[in-house]
Amino acid sequence: MASGKNPLFDTATTLGKILAFLGVSAICGVLVAGLMVPAAAVTGSAANGSVQFFNSLPSELTVTPPGQVTKIVASDGSQIGTLFNENRTPLKLDQMSPNVKNAIVAIEDYRFYEHGGIDMTGILRAVASNVRGDKQGASTLTQQYVTNVINENLVSQGKDADVVLNGQKGVGDKLREMKLAIGLEKQYSKDQILEGYLNLVFFNRNAYGIEAASQYFFSVDAKDLSLPQAALLAGLVNSPSMYDPSVHPDASIKRRNLVLDAMLQHGYINQKDHDAAVATPIQLKINPPKQGCAYASQAQYFCDYVVHLIENDPAYGATPDERDQKLLRGGLTIKTTLDPRAQGPAQQQVDGTAGANNGPWPWGASLVSIQPGTGKIVSMAQNSRMLPGQGKDYVTVYNFNVDDRDKSGPLGGVGGMSTGSTMKPVTLAAWLNEGKPTDQKVDSSRKVYPLNYPWKSTCKVTGAFDSAEKPLAADDLQNDEPDAKWLQPMTVREAIYNSINTATFATAAGLNDFCDIQRMADSLGLHNGGIAGSDIGSVDMTVLGNLLGGGNQAPMTVANAFATFAANGTYCSPIAITDVVDSQGKRIGGQDQQCKPNAVKPDVAKAVTNVLQDVLTKGSGYNIKDANGTTIKLPFPDAAKTGTNQYNNQTWVVGYTRGLATASFFGITTGSADEKHLGQNVVVNGRPWPVIDGAYIAGPQWAYYMAQAGPLYDHGAFDAPPQSLITPTQSQPLPQSSSNTGNNGGQAPAPSAPGAPAPSPTKGKGSSGNGG
Predict the structure, then answer these.
(1) Three-state SS for 495?
(2) Tens digits of per-residue pLDDT, 145-167?
């Protein structure tokens, strides 16, 4: 097949080289005519057309900031993770080693400080060299910078396909580049152009700009580059793949020595320094950049949660693509609420809880902490990793601690787990909100709540516990321990600290309005975890099973609800991001604190705390024990509630001090938490368990973590509740569980505190629950 080249213009032939020389000379003539001679003075239509074409080309180049690395940092400024399309860290010229500045000028454009953007002498010299058969470029550093800026602008606009490389340029492209180079020299000083070039130029797919290249190849800052190191990097820009020292060391060292020769020739170094550098072997210390939350130096899943928050927020771009561009190219600094002092102990605890864990239904362990009164998430840890080979055999991208999604998009969570008895304090708070005391007795003997039970309620209550009405109802209520001991009158306080299911229902039955439970849940911010296909709205507490934790909530949601009790009733939305600053240092975003004082009456919150303290001293939490069977007691005031689902495969302890609220979870997270995978007669971390309860594994995890993290925050005494919410008066008789067989929806007084209307009731799966 005949060649597509015209032999007349083939630069492989002598005639072709001569004609190429003449063509370039013509271009030079156009440049001279266009820049120095008015078009009207140029004779000849061809010359006049060329000048008109040159004059029509743009002369000003918009230099936009190149793609930079976004950093996610903890509250103390320590790095969590980085995000980028191009690994680049811009520097000022005086932050770069003189060696690299001199090396790049010597090898790429030694007349850089003499020409005005284009080098006529260099162009003619290159053509003459090419005629002799020696390949030599003619683009000045300014022209190369122009090309890099144009291409970078195209990439930032998502127009990667329009990028034109040096070997693909036509005459029009070169003329445009030359004119822009001349214009650029009028806008910027030589040092500004050199600084821009060294920050922009491509060295390696892992390194854009001199600082990234220095770190990648030698693990040093650009200011500390030695002469042989600087020469090697300067030689790379001509052909990053051909001269890559990690792949082609011989070619790389040959190119490096050529740079050193040029530096000697143009007076940048003396013979002694030249010879010493040439004799120096290549000593690489490759430091690949870690991009993305999977490579975060701490708190992988918190990092991922932060990224999702940015991606879901239109404040950072009108479309998801714009937000991704902002994240991956914007050079943002995202300052978060994470406290490494708390994160370290949290990670240590969850990693040690489950042990070897590579079965088909691995055990998940997690901790998440929120600062009461601020909503700040200070730690978030789980016992898995995002990638294989990161030290744990449980690999998943799903976050155990957060919702599956919010109203704007995905959050990366598993969608919550069954909370068990950690929901019982909601009923307790509703009881107290009606002015009823903690030490008033209720009738815990009733196990049957049929479909037509007459709840005192302004909303419709759904569900029933009555074995005689199956399948329309669930089985009779059961307690975790033998019935005879608990089927008798007991105080509401005792019902909570011993976690008695029948007493919780008796408490609900004794309310003036059952819907006060829903209002309290809403005030605490409780909502569904948003698993695929489910609502992410409020937990429907009009479904009876949800009184015992039948729904799925994320640990962060439950921790934040308990933080409201710790803050004496002030509810704060959880926040993870305090500030987002752009590459110029301007604050462009962040999550402001959104707190609502008196979301729960302060005295009610204080009384809830007073009861939850008893959980740890004489109730279900007393079973939080060390390996020797000794109850673990914190050396400062604390309050908590245990929780276990009906299959013993999702277990909790959620508790707090004045300054730190933490949800501890142990159980199945990414598998099916049903009767096929019971938490009974199992071995966890080498220890056999006849049954798993909230206190047994999640409990020590919570206690050991709080012992380390608790002292970092306020850990003083809780405020005492008023006596009126503790001790019943003689006029307060034991509430009687009604035996009336009428319909739901009996008359009830108005709610005792304002709140959002209860949502329309929907049927949900109830749970007979366990006491823990």
Answers:
(1) helix
(2) 999 898 888 887 777 777 776 55
